[in-house]
Amino acid sequence: MSEELSVEATGETVGEAKWAALRDLEALHPGLDKAVVSFQVVSEGERGILGVGYAPARVVASVPADAVEEESGPESEAGELVRELLERVTEAVGVPCRIAIEEDEESIRAGLAGRDLGVLIGRHGQTIDAVQYLANAFVLRSGLRKRVVVDAAGYRARREATLETLARRTARRVAETGEPVALEAMTPVERRIVHELLKDDPAVETVSEGSEPHRHVVVVPAGD
Description:
Layout: E1 4-11, H1 14-28, E2 38-43, E3 57-64, H2 77-93, E4 98-103, E5 107-113, H3 118-121, H4 126-141, E6 147-152, H5 155-177, E7 181-185, H6 188-198, E8 204-209, E9 216-221
Parallel strand pairs: 5-6
Antiparallel strand pairs: 1-3, 2-3, 4-5, 7-9, 8-9
């Protein structure tokens, strides 16, 4: 059986989840032939009653590895450092994958594609956040000034979409009831996403409370 490259994505409907997964695959593999992509519906989602109990639809999009033509351009010194680090990490944990490096003047984005990447992502992205922190420290220590983003199977876009849905729904609930709501424990990266999403909402404010690894965001009515 040939190796497959896959990503998992979510959406409010199965159709939206499929489009999100396809977009993530194309980001990792520009020029991908959409005809070779297959989809597996993990969950059709649950809208809940009056917005309570909502769960997004989840879809896995896969493509045979031998059907993907990798386009590799010259990498900068920082890009080569990131690739070398990620090759060592993935080899150490026994997760074979393909590494795509994209760069601009300010940042490096490393995308990992392959099977069984859950071990590299970890619970709520804790493992991949740790790998990203290590990659940033690695590059900074070399004297180079570029921000590094490490992603696996489109996880970051998928998780950010989930956090946005959660944050917006919670903000509406707080605005309607006038009662604060504490969200689940999150990593520093995820808490920052929630704070940024709601910072311009005039009806609510956000604060972080608790100690790691149980630190979480609390959404409160504005002015409290």
